[in-house]
Amino acid sequence: MEQVALNTVIGVMMAIFPGFLFRKCYYRGEFTKQFSQSNELDKVLWNVFFSGLSIGITFLSIYFFRSVSQFELLSSLNYDTIQEIATPISKNEVPNKDLIYKTYKDLLIIITLIYSFSCFFGLVLHWLVRSLKLDIYSPLFRFKNYWHYYIHGGKILYSNPTNKTPAFTVADVLCEIAGETKLYKGIISQYTINKEDNNLENIFLTDARALKQEKDESGNTIKVTMREIPGAAFCIPYKSVANMNLVYVYQDDKKRYLLKLLVPVLNIIFFLSLTFVIASLWFDLSSIGIVGLWRKICYLFWAFVGLSNLRLLIYNKERIKYEWLGQMSFVITSILWVLYFMAIVKLWIAISSIGVALFIVSVVPPKINPENISSDISN
Known about the structure:
3 domains
């Protein structure tokens, strides 16, 4: 078995893996398969390009932060130390042990920041392209999954009303099955595409209906009816499809433009805040009373609980009545525990807040599905 050289591992970690993370976060959702739809040379070149971009932005961000805050971030790393580390690695040798011990914390921080920025900018660029519809207006940003545009509609295909967006798409699918022609109708809920050429593989319909022909003894059609197909989703292999007609059902899109942008903005703020909390574990937090591994782990846990519930408190599309009380109580509980670690509040107050939060969550009535009520009544 061939041994992998140390400089090769470091080269992959710094020159290829950040770009890999960037592209993985950019090609997501319905465009996931485009991640691997290019030759190996193109993949390597794009990975190297986005890795260099992420590394450059990371160093510029650190330089800007140090200039503005006057905080000695990554103080053990400078041109000389980086050169002392890189020189033996280039010769496939291990750097000096004392130098590694001196700089390993800052090296872990900067590698974490590079990987985090790679993921962050991949997610942000995907959001910008989809939110601003750059893929519709410019072929430069257009994804290879052309079925996305056919199924979800858009100005790339036809004259779309300016004040409306497609709510869902109804498909009339004509199939050839065992020598018989059958017609199915339903709402397209999902689809799968081929990894190599982006052709459709399967179509999933909800509220599916099938055309039923009633024939006489001589084989002539005397009546045509539509029958419902029971089930959550009806799958049609595309290889059996003779042709397909798509009908777009529109909804008004005049109101609440700001609300449409709120969710990704909240996700970005949540991601940045959580990244800051995780990165702060590598710093000396003794000045605010957080000393030792155990307190840092608890600080990270309660910070995550507080940030998660704060995001749900600000925006939760499916919030039920009084559910905000439980979210607010956990936000307050998280704050009290962080204040306890900072020696501002007493332990009994922090522990009591957990009991209050759990009590509030337990008394909030659960969400009731109207469909379940109707089915119970019918039964």
